[in-house]
Design a protein that fits this description.
Strand content: 5-15%
Distance between the termini: 38 Å
Order of helices and strands: HHHEEEEHHEHEHEHHHHHEHEHEHEHE
Structural class: alpha/beta
Number of helices: 16
Shape: globular
Mean pLDDT: 92
Radius of gyration: 20 Å
Low-confidence stretches: none
């Protein structure tokens, strides 16, 4: 399969599987435990039907939204994801460039492979910095100060990852950073020599946001150890409230799933929440963000910007989430597969596909702007889970 023959999420996924060594592909592709939640994330959209209206005069469509004070030309953005340099040597640079082209937001992870400052200098579109809460409170402060100096628009604290999920695909291959592959993992790398040549002939792998804080030489801390040794499971609402005050700007919590937690986020001064189960990579068997969206929007949607991610594969998924009250949706695997498949050209094509789908679907729904979408455009077709 070639890039020109990729038209949807599964096409890019198949092409990525052909080009990536197995351990790296499975790091993107896999979830926790039995991967029940991973599968449910997309399946949840099937339990709701769209109800279109006709004869509404939909020649001109406005897809723009405002999220946490940021004007986006489209109602979807590139969520922060880790280790992008492993998937393609352009990594975050490719994703940020495409997000800039579409006038939307992009995220940079603490485990990102390009620096906040470098990306901010190259792109003027809204930038999010996603970070974790560390046992070293001074490190948390340093990270926020660095983001402020870099001109980051939104701080995004991930709150569902105080320890790593049980990702058994990675255990089977020995995937970690730095690589500590077992025999099976080594064989799968050897079977994809083109990836290896590309990897060693371009800029070396780095984690710029953690340099000076995590030793990445020799017996360096693996990703799993980073989560188990450096992150603080004792983090509580008081800790986060202090960070929100310290940042004094747009502050978002990623990984909110309950109505109670959404209300607490409002109380401590957050300006946004992302309903997310981390792509099914943390607590398997947890509820999907889409299934929680209606109740949380009803509870806090008039006081805080509610976003969701998880399972988005089609333009109709975007419209269903927006109809339920999400201000925007985040994309993760949606752009990682095309990044792995073809770098910036792949991400560009996938985002173009999604933009065209959303635009076409808006016309078919009889909607001129995102504000025209409402719960009246949805009918539940099955029992609520």
């Amino acid at each position: 399969m070639r890039l020109k023959n990729c038209h949807n999420f599964q096409d890019y996924r198949k092409l990525a599987a052909k080009r990536l060594p197995g351990p790296i592909f499975n790091y993107i592709d896999g979830g926790a435990d039995d991967e029940v939640t991973l599968r449910k994330n997309t399946a949840s959209f099937d339990a709701v039907d769209l109800v279109p209206n006709v004869l509404r005069g939909v020649k001109d469509i406005d897809l723009s939204v405002t999220v946490m004070g940021q004007k986006l030309d489209v109602p979807f953005y590139c969520s922060p994801t880790a280790l992008q340099r492993l998937f393609h040597h352009r990594g975050e640079h490719a994703v940020a460039a495409v997000a800039d082209k579409f006038g939307t937001m992009f995220g940079v992870s603490s485990l990102g492979t390009a620096s906040l400052e470098e990306l901010r200098a190259k792109h003027s579109n809204p930038q999010v910095y996603q970070f974790y809460f560390h046992k070293d409170r001074g490190l948390n402060t340093v990270m926020m100060e660095r983001a402020k100096s870099a001109g980051v628009n939104v701080m995004m604290l991930t709150v569902d990852s105080i320890t790593g999920g049980n990702r058994e695909r990675d255990l089977r291959t020995g995937f970690s950073i730095p690589m500590r592959l077992n025999a099976r993992g080594l064989y799968e790398f050897m079977s994809k020599p083109a990836w290896g040549i590309n990897y060693v002939t371009h800029e070396r792998f780095r984690l710029p946001q953690l340099e000076g804080h995590v030793d990445m030489s020799g017996g360096a801390t693996s990703i799993g150890n980073y989560f188990t040794e450096m992150l603080d499971p004792s983090m509580d609402w008081d800790d986060v409230a202090k960070m929100v005050q310290e940042w004094d700007g747009e502050f978002c919590l990623k990984g909110i799933m309950s109505v109670e937690d959404a209300k607490r986020a409002v109380e401590i001064g957050c300006t946004g929440i992302v309903l997310s189960n981390h792509g099914g990579r943390q607590l398997d068997g947890s509820r999907t963000a889409f299934d929680q969206l209606e109740d949380i929007v009803a509870a806090v949607g008039d006081r805080i910007d509610v976003i969701m991610d998880g399972g988005i594969q089609r333009g109709t998924h975007v419209l269903k989430a927006l109809s339920r009250g999400a201000k925007a949706v985040g994309l993760g695997r949606f752009y990682l597969y095309p990044l792995a498949a073809a770098g910036q050209a792949g991400v560009d094509r996938a985002m173009t596909n999604l933009h065209n789908e959303v635009l076409r679907d808006m016309r078919l729904m009889g909607c001129q702007s995102i504000s025209d979408l409402s719960p009246d455009n949805l009918i539940d077709t099955g029992p609520r889970r």
